[in-house]
Amino acid sequence: TARAASSALADTLSSGSPLVAYESVLASSPLLTKCVTSGVGFAVADVVAQSLSGGFRDAKRTAANAAFGLVLYGPLSSAWYETLDAFIVPESPNGAAAVAAKTLLDQILWAPVLVTGLFAWDMACKGEPLFVARDEK
Question: How many angstroms separate the CA atoms of 38 and 33, rounded?
């Protein structure tokens, strides 16, 4: 829960190590921590992308990207990677065969879903139609 994560964070911040604090919060509230981390990561990535392409100017876009990371990418990717770990060479999850198989499945199955979902989210946040009729001439 959020309260457990907050308590764990407060307890470990006194240690002075951000990594120790993060690992403690991750252990006490793994899904919430992954979701928040994803949201922050998507927001930072968007700010960097905007800065590199002429300067930060679209806070709504950044908020939409942060929300995508928090609400969709965080929980869905957590479930996806836990599923891969459970079913793909679980006795040696970090071995070469497992890593190769997980990477292949990730690129073939998860990446297309993620990219399509991100574009759909972006269009929905901009109020654009997800499906556009095309005139056949």
Answer: 8
